[in-house]
Specification:
Distance between the termini: 76 Å
Structural class: alpha+beta
CATH topology of the domain at 1-122: Beta Polymerase, domain 2
Keywords: Coiled coil, Membrane, Transmembrane, Transmembrane helix
Number of strands: 7
Transmembrane segments: 251-272, 284-304
Pfam families: CorA (PF01544)
Oligomer: single chain
CATH superfamily of the domain at 1-122: CorA soluble domain-like
CATH architecture of the domain at 1-122: 2-Layer Sandwich
Largest sheet: 7 strands, mixed
Membrane topology: Multi-pass membrane protein
Strand order of the largest sheet: 1-2-3-7-6-5-4
Order of helices and strands: EEEHHEEEEHHHHH
Number of helices: 7
Helix content: 55-70%
GO cellular component, one term: membrane
Radius of gyration: 34 Å
Length: 311
Amino acid sequence: MSTVLKDTPEAFPQGPQRLTTAGWIWLYQPDPVSIQRLAAELDVDEDFLFDVLDPDENPRLQREEDHLLGILPVPVRRDEDGGWLLRPMGFILQEETLVTISTVQWTFLQDLFSRASTEAGSAGGQRRNLLRIVQAITEIYEHALDDLVQRMAQLEDLLDSTQSNDDLFRLLEVGKAALQMHAALAGNVAVIFKLSRHHRLAWEDEEKRRLNLLVADLQAVHERAEVLSRTMNSTMDAYGGMVQNNINHGLKVLTTLALVLYIPALMATLYGVNPPIPLQDKPWIFWVVVLGSFALSGLMAAVFRYRLRWI
């Protein structure tokens, strides 16, 4: 069974904490003291462990003497609005031991860690756990992309009727998340591919076959994220063009109304001044001016409406 070594008396998930089982050490929400302790125990550079705490850390794989150190960004839901963020998960491969470092309480890690505890003592535990982690990460990306597609469709329906700035900003957040996942998946594919070809891990034939399938699945998810990212860019450009067209149409309408009302305003101004003007003493001139002004305005409005289609 697993042994939980806590740095604080609170229950999980409060941390920092260190969970250990045969072939797997999980450092959760580490503080500087926990990181320095683990770095001294494994004889690894503690700078790598601190890099895992950086939320913007990029995926990578590096070798340090007898260790393989890697970082894989994993999607996690944002609490306030249900959006998606990427947070790094670090791992260290040392002989028959797998070490994972995370600042997020991923459910899949808890499940896999509990499963590994029941299989303690079986051969190939390090590689088997790593395969399960990669598979779980792939499924999380698939679920996240499904959610982004669904949210994009909902926001498009809202924008068709409202064109609200808030909906546009939410759509922009969806596009940002898709772009970040696309970039992260490209790095994850490279990391997993290098692991599948690394001689130190001594993959068995069945494990190598499974890992190759996982690389193919990750590549497919990466291509899907690329398509979604491009679709989001095209959608944002389209809505940006629609907003600009609506603004231009509004300006056309206002300009047309100003021109239509200009003639009655001009005639009223001319016949409202004090200097004498022609026919001002005729009683019928008022109706001629009024009816003539409105007739010309109506003619202009008809031209703008039916010929130019500005209104």
